[in-house]
Amino acid sequence: MSQDLYELLGVSRDADADQIKKAYRKLARQLHPDVNPDPEAQEKFKHVSSAYEVLSDPQKRAHYDRGGDPFSQGGGFGQGAGFSFTDIMDAFFGGAAPGGAGGGRGPRPRTRRGQDALIALEIELAEAAFGVTREIKVDTAVTCSLCHGAGTAEGTEPVTCGTCHGAGEVAQVQRSFLGEIRTLRPCAACRGYGSIIPDPCRECSGDGRVRSRRTLNVKIPGGVDDGTRVQLTEQGEVGPGGGPAGDLYVEIRVAQHPTFVRNGNDLHCTVSVPMTAAALGTTLTLPLLEADIDGSDDGEEKAERETTYDLEVRPGTQSGTEQVLRGKGVPGLRGGRGDLIATVVVETPTKLDARQEELLRELATLRGEEAPRAPCAPARSRSSGVSATPSATTEQAMTLPVHVVDDLAGVTVGATVAVTGDEAHHAVAVRRLAVGERVVLTDGSGRSVTGPVSSTAKRAFDLVVEELDDAPRPEPRVTVVQALPKGDRGELAVEVLTEVGVDVVVPWAASRSVAVWRGERAAKSHAKWSSTAREAAKQARRVWHPEVTALSSTSDVVARIEAADVALVLHEDAMSALSAVELPERGEVLVVVGPEGGVAPEELEAFAAAGAVTVRLGREVLRTSTAGVVAVGALLSRTRRWST
């Protein structure tokens, strides 16, 4: 023998049978011809199989350990040294091959792990946000208290099966033109257990478990959402024969709140104010979600909790105006907290007495509003009615609610734009968009329209265009090449980069990236990045939305560096500081952000050869999901994009 059999399987000489079997299974998954067609792998698989045949047999193993040749009767490797087809199937499927021609697998144990269980639990929105401990009742299988899982009556024990003599299997031999074919099947008399219970337990009928109702306390962490599952280890069904219990999963169902609507970690609510209060201004007391927390906690904590917020309604507030209360939303499971977004709806009086009507007419006379003009505005340009730059009116309009549509090409002043789908559903159902409310629509390509809502439906609303603007593309343009970070940090990077003002985000498969985009996962990850950019641009009220390109290789990044006016690579060991870089007034500024492991030396060389400059942010080494944001913020603060 030229190679030690233990070394072939990668186990020590004192390894037990289970360790040897696990090592063989692992190698079989890698080297089996159906998985790896490489000829060298097939040859190695023969050696590994022969080694396992010896070490899995106690007699052959002992003979080999004493220095004997275990293949003296069957030739060497690859020459009659067979292997168990049952073990091959076991390696791939975790169980015995049905009807396998190799050695028997023996009787199956009566004790097995139980199944997992799933129950639904409805909780209030405040409980989902801040966490709660609830008592639940579950009906599951538990260990029989009479036989303690044995399945036998008191004083009795299972007896060996007379059909299979304890093997749990019976052999069947069939003759064919190829010879005799021997197969093993579970014994029908004992059902494969190898033993029979002649006098089963009267409580569990021999199963070792009974159904019972139990009471459990489940701790729901703060930040869970509808559909979140909380796992309770070993609280599920007890297995046959009193085997270990499976897990219990509690699926959360969040009840509808009378005031707040949850969207991710943000809360939305509608605040109705009278027309006079909206015109003159007022301060309203807005209840927070903390007000719904059970008051059974200690007095000190309850006293420190803020349950209301004084919402200031400024004079002249228009219907549909949104006020964002930072950090008043739902806490996240991984930290942080969402926002509370209050939408102001101005209520117009519908019934007036004579005196009220007289006062309102007097006010209209004083304001010159006895005969208001039609709800349309003159065109700003004789040719198209489009202003070349955003006007003060547009800047004021962008403080109104913003909604994104696919295309506004060809839209003119006075036209009606129909908004449908999820965007309209969110506006009507969540924001409670009302007829007459002024909103802004943008297609993310620089064009925006402003006007009142003329009609609403369940998943649609119409807007009459009063103002139309085409904003020029911001200069200089900023592109960030973002190496794929691990986990959900990619979406975080895209979200904040969008809010800062990045124009193009390029996902980069760097050589040291932990995350990998392939096949279906690549499409899903790219869609997540794109939707994140769209939503962040809407929240930031951007009329130019960033483009998220397809996944780029290092050679693709090199081509982008060559085409850029200024290309920068962030690196903690760079000699030049980011603050020393001179920026152009127009053109493209490209920033390359490496992965968690840093940019590889060969990538740095390729980028430098293409004209990129390596720069450092400062003394601190930031994460890949935040380094680009800090760099872009530092760069844009020195351009007219942030100074105007």
Give a written overview of the molecule.
The structure is a single chain. With 644 residues, the chain is an alpha/beta fold. 26% of the residues lie in helices and 25% in strands. Strands 24-23-22-27-25-28-26 form a seven-stranded parallel β-sheet, with helices on both faces. Strands 16, 17, 18, 19, 20 and 21 form a six-stranded mixed β-sheet that branches. It has a four-stranded mixed β-sheet with strand order 10-11-15-14. Helix 2 (17-31) packs antiparallel against helix 3, helix 2 packs across helix 5 and helix 12 (489-500) runs parallel beside helix 16.
**Amino-to-carboxy terminus distance:** 81 Å
Nearest-integer average pLDDT: 83
Largest sheet descriptor: 7 strands, parallel
Note the beta-strand portion: 25-35%
Overall radius of gyration: 36 Å
What strand line-up does the widest sheet have? 24-23-22-27-25-28-26
| Net shape | flat
Give the tally of β-strands.
28
Quaternary structure of the protein: single chain
> Structural class, judged by helices and strands?
alpha/beta
Structure annotation, total helices: 17
- What low-confidence regions span 5 or more consecutive residues with pLDDT below 50? 73-103, 296-300, 377-398
Helix content: 25-40%
How would you summarize what this structure contains?
With 644 residues, the chain is of the alpha/beta class.
